[in-house]
Amino acid sequence: MDLSLNAIPDGQFAACQALVYSLLQRCETEEREGGYALALVSAHPSAGVTHVRQIIELMLNENEASCATSVDCDLLGLPDTGPPELTHNGKNGRRPKRDRGLMRSKGLARYRDRIGHLNKLREAYTFVLLDCHSLAERTDVLGLAPVVDGTIVIVECNRTTTSQLDDLERNIEKYGGTILGSVLNKSSSSVPNWMNSLMGKVGI
Q1: 104 partner at 20 to 30 Å CA-CA among 29, 86, 158, 176?
Q2: Residue 150, strand partner residues
Q3: Which letter, b or e, does each residue of 39-63 get, where b requires 16 or more Cβ atoms within 10 Å of its Cβ?
Q4: Distances in Å between the alpha carbon of 198 and those of 45, 92, 192, 195, 203?
Q5: Taking Cα atoms as reference points, which of 71, 50, 190, 87 lies closest to residue 125?
Q6: CATH of domain 7-79+124-201
Q7: DSSP-derived 3-state class of residue 187
Q8: Which residues on neighbouring strands pair with residue 97, listed in sequence order?
Q9: Taking the C-alpha atoms of 71, 72, 74 and 76 in order, what is their torsion angle to the nearest 10 degrees?
Q10: What is the tens place of the pLDDT at every residue in 51-108?
Q11: CA dihedral 74, 100, 102, 73 (to 10 degrees)
Q12: Where are the domains of the chain?
């Protein structure tokens, strides 16, 4: 992982650090078997999910070596491939009922494979970080929402809108998921260093 904590902007570092402290505290206070699975997602592409995931993974592993791992959502479970005949529609543009039934059965098998893979990772690591597609690209995170221990939302500064964020959080909760927190990414502080120092002295 070619990433240094020293190169991370202060605001982003603080947000990730707060999440990490919260996770570590939760880990200490809860008695459970297996690790924690956490999904990271954004409302739209290119918000920096992978970058933030790398920061959180690095922080967790600095606290305890090899306690955290990460998995691309596409690699969770078996490859999603099927017989060629399932890719063709009928004359009316819809799949034949037999094919639709096979697709549903295949979808359930894929879902079980993902859960099985996730549970094996939970047995090996304290924290499993899932790098998910944005909701605008795919809805994988909604299927995983009820089986992970929480979701971390990545918000891109000056791009992610309030309505996009509300829609993402509402959908995750609708599907049984829990929002653990959010990280503002790609932000640049306009507050001068001398003012940051002054604010720190007075406890702001």
Answers
A1: 176
A2: 38
A3: bbbbbbeebbbeebbbbbbbbbbee
A4: 37, 70, 10, 5, 9
A5: 71
A6: 3.40.50.300
A7: coil
A8: none
A9: 10
A10: 999 999 999 999 999 999 999 998 998 544 333 333 334 444 444 454 444 445 555 6
A11: 10
A12: 7-79+124-201
Pairing mode of beta strands 179-185, 68-72: unpaired
Q: Would you say 193 and 13 are in contact if contact means Cβ atoms under 8 Å apart?
A: no
CB 16 within 8 A of CB 59: yes
8 Å CB contact between 158 and 48: no
* Amino acid (one-letter) located at 1: M
DSSP tag of 145:
T
pLDDT digit string (tens) for 149-202?
999 999 999 999 999 999 999 999 999 999 999 999 987 654 444 434 443 444
The pTM for the full model equals: 0.75
**What secondary structure, in 3-state letters, does 45-82 show?**
CCCCHHHHHHHHHHHHHHHCCCCEEEEEHHHCCCCCCC
Q: Are 50 and 141 a contacting pair, CB within 8 Å?
A: no
